[in-house]
Specification:
The complex is a heterodimer of chains A (about 230) and B (about 220).
Chain A (H helix, E strand, L loop, with lengths): L6 H5 L2 H35 L2 H15 L3 H14 L6 H26 L3 H9 L4 H31 L11 H12 L2 H30 L16
Helix pairs in contact in A: 2-3, 2-5, 2-8, 3-5, 4-5, 5-7, 6-7, 7-9, 8-9
Chain B lengths: L6 H36 L4 H15 L3 H10 L10 H26 L3 H9 L4 H31 L11 H12 L2 H33 L1
Helix pairs in contact in B: 1-2, 1-4, 1-7, 1-8, 2-4, 3-4, 4-6, 5-6, 6-8, 7-8
The chains are: A mainly alpha (about 230), B mainly alpha (about 220).
């Protein structure tokens, strides 16, 4: 192998990598917060709202979940200005990530709400809890506990998918990596470092979500033993 | 040259969609085969195999698909090899998808209760026979809905390979958009083509899930 790795020229740019990573974290953090809010509202609309609202939210979910994020970013950034709505690259990126996560979160949270038996709701009524109390203590928190792992996985996917918004030069980590690659021509070194940064961020996010899960759901922990087979 | 968006462009988009489908099919087959092997390693009682599988799955699931594509596309340059675009795109997506297929099938296999293993081993079946005749037929039922669901992700992930220049339907859309200056219209077409490919799979995935849940 005659190739000489030159990490030093790339590592000299570490400040820019860190800036890019910070913007990635900020973008995906905001997308996670706003996307979850959309998810809660969407799930409520689908389970409690009138039929026409259920239909509209359902169409939103299906369209977003069955088209790639890349095309959604293109439509928002290049397509909407053509019909008069303008965004900066970072705004388009945040908007696309939020709308994307919102659709997945809607479906995940709805599944959680529908997993709560209706009799629980009636039991809450018979204890003369208010509708809000019933929603909070009997439907939302238990539902959240059921779907927490799926929601957390979706958050991680959003963090990783944020690399795709580099196609509109949103200045996050992947965009920075592409610029540095263009300057130094050290593709492998640049993308190795970038990949390691993403892995670190993803593992960090998953650890934080796991800790948050322990704090949020303290009452019930069911641990199932894993089946391992003998033979190989 | 700026031209009007017309029938030629739609045909060009459809030929791009053909490449999207071919790339998706290769990814599903290749990723499925490697994923199955990794799933078996993951449930193996050998600590070494188990450890390798866990690290492989965790690393890939914590990496953006775009980074896998970049590394596979630029990586062989170390050895002075330049991979053509299709094999590079396919290899990257196969590696990426295999980690997800592995986790889906690992979960399905482990959802089969342990006594099934014990019972079949009491019948003197070999390990391969246990897997083939007792465990897999039950695991397949559980794994079908998430597998088909993940196939939708596979199709969508192929769009990322357009960033390194593979001419799938997304790249075709970009090229036409640059030539016609009608991005909104072009990307709506692109989105519609993806939707037509993906939506039926989503519906099938949900149908299978409902069917199996009712029977249980």
């Amino acid at each position: 192998m005659s190739y000489r790795f030159q990490f030093d020229v790339v590592l000299a740019q570490s400040d820019r990598f860190i800036e890019g990573a910070a913007l990635t974290l900020q973008l995906s953090g905001e997308a996670i917060v706003f996307g979850t809010v959309i998810g809660i509202l969407g799930a409520l609309a689908r389970t409690e709202g009138p039929r026409w609202l259920d239909w509209i939210v359902g169409a939103y979910v299906e369209v977003i979940r069955n088209t790639p994020l890349l095309v959604q970013v293109f439509l928002l950034f290049f397509g909407l200005p053509a019909v008069g709505v303008k965004f900066t690259a970072t705004e388009a990126a945040l908007f696309a990530l939020t709308v994307n996560l919102g659709a997945y979160a809607t479906e995940i949270i709805r599944a959680g709400i529908e997993a709560i038996p209706h009799t629980q709701f009636e039991a809450g009524l018979s204890l003369s809890l208010t509708r809000l109390q019933i929603f909070r203590h009997i439907i939302f928190m238990p539902a959240l506990e059921i779907i927490y792992p799926a929601l957390g996985a979706q958050f991680t996917l959003t963090l990783l998918a944020s690399s795709i918004v580099s196609v509109v030069a949103a200045n996050e980590l992947t965009t920075v990596a592409q610029i540095i690659e263009g300057e130094t021509f050290r593709s492998i070194e640049v993308y190795t470092i970038t990949t390691l940064l993403y892995i670190a961020m993803a593992l960090g996010l998953r650890s934080i979500l796991a800790l948050l899960g322990l704090v949020l759901f303290r009452r019930r922990r069911v641990v199932q033993p894993q089946v391992r087979m003998s033979g190989i | 040259m700026i031209h009007q968006f017309g029938i030629h462009d739609i045909l060009y988009l459809l030929s791009g969609a053909g490449w999207t489908l071919i790339l998706s099919a290769v990814t599903m087959i290749g990723g499925g085969m490697i994923g199955f092997c990794v799933a078996l390693m993951r449930i193996s009682s050998s600590h070494v195999l188990h450890g390798i599988a866990v690290v492989y799955i965790e690393l890939i699931q914590s990496t953006p698909v775009l980074m896998v594509v970049f590394l596979v596309y630029f990586g062989p340059g170390i050895f002075g090899i330049e991979l053509p675009k299709f094999p590079a795109a396919a290899l990257a997506l196969v590696v990426y998808s295999s980690a997800f297929f592995a986790e889906i099938w690992r979960g399905a296999i482990q959802s089969v209760p342990r006594p099934q293993w014990e019972a079949s081993s009491a019948l003197a079946l070999t390990w391969l026979q246990q897997l083939r005749y007792v465990i897999l037929p039950q695991a397949v039922r559980v794994s079908l809905p998430p597998t088909v669901g993940f196939m939708v992700q596979v199709v969508k992930n192929t769009s990322v390979t357009s960033i390194v220049g593979f001419v799938d339907v997304s790249r075709a859309g970009q090229l036409i958009s640059n030539a016609t200056f009608q991005p909104f219209r072009v990307y709506l077409w692109v989105a519609a083509i993806y939707f037509v490919i993906c939506y039926p799979m989503s519906v099938i995935s949900r149908r299978i899930e409902r069917k199996f849940n009712v029977r249980r």
